[in-house]
Amino acid sequence: MGQSAYTIAQIAGVEVPKSTKILIGEVESVDPSEEMAHEKLSPVLGMYKAVDFDDAIAKAERLVADGGYGHTSSLYIDTRETEKMAKHAEAMKTCRILVNTPSSQGGIGDLYNFKLAPSLTLGCGSWGGNSVSGNVGPMHLLNIKTVAERRENMLWFRTPEKVYFKKGCMPVALDELGTVMGKKRAFIVTDSFLYKSGFTKQIEAKLDEMGIAHACFYDVAPDPTLQCAQEGVKQLSSFEPDTIIAVGGGSAMDAAKIMWLMYEHPEAKFEDMAMDFMDIRKRVYTYPTMGEKCYFVAIPTSSGTGSEVTPFAIITDAESGIKWPLADYQLLPNMAIVDTDNMMSQPKGLTSASGVDVLTHALEAYVSIMASDYTDGIALRAGELVFKYLARAYDNPDDVEARDHMANASCLAGMAFANAFLGVNHSMAHKLGAFHHIPHGWANAVILTRVMRYNAAERPTKMGSFSQYQYPHAKARYAEFGRACGFTGANDDEVFENFIAGIEELKAHVGVKPTIKDFGVDEQYFLDTLDEMSEQAFNDQCTGANPRYPLVSEIRELYLDAYYDREPSSYED
């Protein structure tokens, strides 16, 4: 240590002049067995001759790899050769790359380039096993204690800019497009059944009256595909509308939202937008701003999905089979028109499936870990309306009052879960629909009371991640909901049981079959798909807001219980 080059050479048995400053040993191999290939804190250098620049890069990469990733590397070059400089920088796994600068001192910084921050304690990043790649300072070396008191996260309540409702309101609400907004071109998105049934004629007549040019895309399938949306976007781009009007159930609205997004931002990537999140406030991907080209109007024709007031859309790639679930408030419609006239012709099956879907939306929003005072009131009112009017709407399709209140219940429940989100009931129902083609509302209903019992366990295996409360209280919440719907009892347990019985009675009244098996699901195919369904339900975006965070094995048991009508003995603890 601290010896001159002359002395070091003498030790090695080599004679050099006393004035020698540097010892250079020319070698060929970069293998670690070559002594000169190792880093030496001494005036001894190894020298390699390269065939060309690529060969020099390859040798340097190997030397850095064997000597230790992370700190400093140097390049001596004509700085006009920018491509070579970039190639060298890309190849070197070091945090400081010096050009025409001595590395032994230049790596310290500020000696040859004042923009390179000085430090004798430069970290070499994860390449070299360090937690930092910049200068190591006092903040990295001190143990600093942080005392954090638990505080509730920010919540919100977000809805479309305008929500119009009441029987016969649609032409009055649409009038605003012309008289207030001055829209010129409207593009209608619906399905072939609604189009052929004449549902769009009243809309088209109103647009004609206002002098608004219009076109219609009516090829939306019940499970909308990306290819269908892409075809619609072609027509959108050709027509160049300033307004999109989505007419129908959840499928038409999902497809229209996707078409809206693709029309306004063709550069957006679905794999980025569909990235999972634990907390929607902290997204990795920021959605592009919507509404700069088109104003979006949603007009539901069924009382169930609430899509007219939600920021969600699901699209399936028919080629890859990937189902893209998109969730962001940029997808929230600008205007929702809830006109009971559009719901009067719902068949009994749709009335049943959509009606119990409303109840599930309201219940899951009320017990969600994201529930708030703002969502609680409308969730309770939606549930109350379902118990008062669903059976009436099912028994007498011409009952205007019942249809009107069910339309409102659907929209209210949509607003509730658009802000509080859903839970594992919907996660499981999504997979029953995907694997076994049970209509969505019935898929929710067939497992609803079992999921309620599961969530109501006083000592769950796991709680949700962002709960707004200190200990599980789902049973008390269910009891509150039951009381709002007219069920009584001496205590929460009794109200809960009476509420469960009431839900089962309502389900039976509107034709919901009691078990998964009763929907014609083949037993062997159900068992063959059970594990995959359970894993996918666990990973579903809805699961995170459930009051009891499930295990995959618990979801599996819930499926089995609902298929075989087993007693729910495994739900507690």
Keywords for this entry:
alpha/beta, single chain, 20 helices, elongated, 573 residues, two-stranded parallel sheet, 6-stranded parallel beta sheet
- Quaternary: single chain
Content-based structural category: alpha/beta
User: How many β strands by DSSP?
Assistant: 12
Widest sheet, order of strands: 5-12-9-8-6-7
Number of helices: 20
Query: What gap, in angstroms, lies between the N and C termini?
Result: 67 Å
Largest sheet: 6 strands, parallel
Can you give me a brief rundown of this structure?
With 573 residues, this protein is an alpha/beta fold. The chain has helices at residues 5-11, 53-67, 82-91, 103-106, 138-141, 170-179, 192-196, 201-209, 226-239, 250-264, 270-273, 348-367, 373-395, 400-420, 424-436, 440-455, 474-484, 492-509, 523-539, 552-564; strands spanning 23-26, 44-47, 70-75, 94-99, 162-165, 185-189, 213-217, 243-248, 295-300, 312-316, 323-327, 335-338.
